[in-house]
Amino acid sequence: MTEPHRNDLQNRKKTGAPFPFARMARKRNALDRLDLQFRWGRYGIRVLRCHLMAFEPGQVIGFHKHSEFEFHFIPKGKGTVTIQDRKYELGEGLFYLTGPDVIHEQRSDDEDPMFELCLHCEIVELDRAAEAEWGDKLEEREAEECVRLLQTMPPEPALDRYQAMNCFLDAYRAWEEQPVGFYTTMKQTVLQILLRAARVHAAPGDSGNIPERDMKDHRFRLATQFIEDNEARPLTLEDVAEKVRVSPRQLQRIFRSEGNSTFHDWLEHARLQKICSELLQTDRPIEDIALDHGYSTPNYLYPVFKKKYGMTPSAYRRHHGVR
């Protein structure tokens, strides 16, 4: 492991952050049951396994190989992987790819056993005669570039700089919620894992059209995600600005430019969405729901709710057929 990677991992440990993938531990192999296969450019992608694995202390998975691609991401814990005849240290935030026929052995640490997010997929080049008339040429070029990078990627562990791990959680949430467009959502999350892994080893000149991050948009997304995750507790503009690492005044400007809203209105919207969901999916008392989503008493909730939806929470339940 390089020195910058080692320092980054040490800094992460000092934060003592909770395990963000605990949600997937409920049903670690849920996504393995999905028969997910799709076309990407001139390639067929078939997902064989996509899950969270929890190693036992000192557990060893002996030398083996696959005829497909297997992506390994370490969200927590420590261990080692021996690829061919070279041993590498593994730790939080690292990932590695074992391509077709790469022999490897995994070993979990005795004191700090590791977790692994695994994507095991088959990537097959399709016959050009099967190409659809409306194929996207730009997507085809990007798919070819990504597969080329994966095929030539060195097997040594690297830092997950483009946060491909988060895509596993996105896929699991989609499986839980089964939203409209579930198949497309799953396809996009798998492609994002492939692309974000490939970018780590891409040379600067490999792809000139990968855009730089729009920091306003990025900070807006960080802020809104933090609000969604923490809407149940008291939140202030200053709290969220500190997490996003901008001034409160700057964050308020970001909400206006990127969300056409204010911080207060966005927070209120996030809370009301969660409240509406609970009103329709549970029979909990409105007073309890209000308390769980940032309203100290129902008296504060009622006027806000009625202003937005034109009816009281009780009427909202009746309107949607919930007794």
UniProtKB/TrEMBL annotation:
Instruction: State a single Gene Ontology molecular function.
Output: DNA-binding transcription factor activity
Q: Which domain of life is it from?
A: Bacteria
UniProt keyword Transmembrane, yes or no: no
- Keyword Repeat among UniProt keywords: no
Report the InterPro entries cross-referenced here: AraC-bd, AraC_XylS_family_regulators, Homeodomain-like_sf, HTH_AraC, HTH_AraC-typ_CS, RmlC-like_jellyroll, RmlC_Cupin_sf
User: Which residue range or ranges hold the HTH araC/xylS-type domain?
Assistant: 221-319
| Record keywords | DNA-binding, Transcription, Transcription regulation
Can you name this protein? Answer: AraC family transcriptional regulator
- Organism equals Cohnella faecalis
